[in-house]
Specification:
InterPro entries: NIP7_N, Nip7_N_euk, PUA, PUA-like_sf, PUA_sf, Ribosomal_synth_fac_NIP7, UPF0113_PUA. Helix content is about 30%, strand content about 30%. It has helices at about 5-20, 25-30, 50-55, 85-95, 100-110, 150-155, 170-175, 175-180, and strands spanning about 1-5, 35-40, 45-50, 70-75, 80, 95-100, 115, 120, 130-135, 140-145, 160-170.
Length: about 180
């Protein structure tokens, strides 16, 4: 387990900024809590308290499976891909949000896109192709995706047109359990 390089840090924060904007600073500077850090272990970026990172330094690399919250994976090309396990933090700090009606929740949780008929609410001034957090109408985070249309376009579009492209959802915990660890 090692700290992220400058290039890895830049890629991670660029990717996170697409979802949570300037709120990325809140991940490291949490008020009333201890300092948190990002660490790389086996091409996975983990988010944890600094105290936990220091304790993990005593464990050998082969014996350590994971520690903290899995935030992202680094692909073979060096790109960073945000994982659904980071949903709690993305949902908390997200600038743009979409709420899905109960009749479309199941479809989204099985990896489908959301049409206009399933759109409950959308944050004002959401631009087209903006990364968004997806919630149920009861404010339960379901996943994240990309807004297929802006807020104004959503109000004027046909009922069967796509308004949200699926990226990740909490159903992945069950579908891809082996890949998550």
């Amino acid at each position: 387990m090692r700290p992220l390089t400058d290039e890895e840090t830049k890629k991670l924060f660029d990717k996170l900024a697409q979802y949570i904007g300037a709120n990325t600073t809140h991940l490291l500077e949490r008020k009333g809590e201890e300092e948190h850090v990002f660490r790389l272990h086996k091409n996975r970026i983990w988010y944890m308290p600094l105290r936990l990172a220091k304790l993990a330094s005593c464990v050998s690399k082969t014996n350590l499976m994971g520690i903290g919250v899995l935030f992202a994976k680094v692909t073979h090309n060096g790109n960073v891909r945000i994982q659904v396990t980071a949903l709690e933090y993305i949902a908390q700090y997200s600038l743009f949000k979409i709420w899905v009606k109960p009749n479309q929740e199941q479809k989204f949780l099985y990896g489908g896109n959301v049409s206009r008929t399933g759109l409950g609410r959308i944050t004002e001034s959401t631009p087209k192709y903006q990364k968004v957090a997806v919630f149920s109408m009861g404010d339960i985070p379901l996943g994240f995706g990309v807004a297929a249309q802006s807020t104004l376009e959503c109000r004027k579009c046909e009922m069967n047109s796509q308004v949200l492209f699926h990226e990740a959802d909490v159903g992945e915990y069950l579908r891809d359990e082996a890949r998550m660890t």
